[in-house]
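Retry 2 of 3 after timeout on previous attempt. Resubmitting structure tokens to design endpoint.
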């Protein structure tokens, strides 16, 4: 079994990637000071901007993106596993990929993951989002065995809106995931209603730890995000949280032995049974 200290970094990313890199550097350094050996930043760490022209002006391929480069350097500088929750990466046809990166303590890439589910929604109060107009959806789940001082932990990857699709996390748990992740830029409106309950549910139903760093507060482009970056244990208890929406860091100990313990108590992954899809019968006419 493996034990490590994990940190969630809460940010309020704006429209200037250089300023966001500075904020990331300071918060990751604080997490390292608190003893974290795994640090996760939020979705869209590099930039949050509604202005399409400004957004596209900063799009770069992964190999030349300054946010990716800075995260790689930070992992090596502090000798830790750094999970860049996501940043926008140039894709074909002028589109972007909402891509997460996991870097090892040597700065090398362990895994990448492109957000699969696009946040195309119309909320109350006229709040509307169409991620599919900007981003190319990913097509594969992400899973990696990550080495820590006393062993390895199997970590699954997701981003924000993905958390509303439990089949993604169930597939990772069935493939042996012990830690699930969902870095996010959750809107204030949906966060107040669903953030905590969705993350706790994904942890409980899969008997996994859940780590979710978030954006928080009112951003330069006018959007509001919920914050409350958190870590849940496999029993669904919140063991760390950045309360509110201000930038900050929260740290907790992850012990994968607890995953095995909870799965022994409630072996729902083993107790799954196949079933037929429901058939709808047409009502009989009188």
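Retry 2 succeeded. Sequence:
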């Amino acid at each position: 079994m493996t034990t490590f200290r994990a940190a969630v970094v809460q940010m309020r990313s704006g429209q200037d990637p250089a300023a966001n890199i500075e904020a990331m550097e300071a918060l990751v350094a604080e997490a390292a000071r608190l003893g974290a050996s795994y640090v996760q930043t939020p979705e869209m760490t590099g930039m949050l901007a509604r202005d399409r022209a400004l957004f596209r002006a900063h799009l770069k391929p992964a190999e030349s993106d300054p946010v990716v480069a800075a995260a790689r350097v930070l992992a090596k500088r502090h000798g830790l596993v750094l999970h860049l929750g996501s940043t926008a990466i140039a894709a074909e046809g002028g589109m972007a990929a909402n891509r997460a990166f996991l870097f090892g303590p040597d700065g090398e890439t362990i895994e990448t993951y492109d957000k699969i589910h696009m946040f195309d929604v119309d909320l109350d109060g006229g709040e509307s989002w169409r991620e599919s107009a900007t981003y190319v959806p990913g097509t594969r789940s992400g899973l990696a065995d990550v080495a820590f001082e006393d062993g390895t932990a199997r970590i699954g990857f997701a981003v924000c809106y993905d958390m509303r699709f439990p089949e993604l996390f169930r597939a990772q748990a069935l493939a042996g995931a012990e830690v699930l992740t969902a870095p996010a830029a959750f809107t204030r409106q949906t966060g107040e209603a669903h953030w905590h309950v969705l993350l706790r549910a994904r942890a409980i139903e899969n008997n996994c730890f859940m780590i979710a760093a978030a954006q928080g507060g009112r951003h330069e482009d006018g959007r509001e995000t919920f914050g409350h970056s958190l870590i849940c244990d496999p029993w669904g208890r919140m063991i760390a949280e950045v309360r509110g929406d201000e930038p900050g860091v929260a740290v907790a100990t992850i012990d994968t032995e607890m995953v095995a313990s909870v799965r022994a108590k409630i072996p729902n992954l083993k107790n799954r049974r196949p079933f037929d899809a429901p058939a709808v019968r047409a009502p009989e006419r009188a």
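Attempt log closed. The mean pLDDT is 95.
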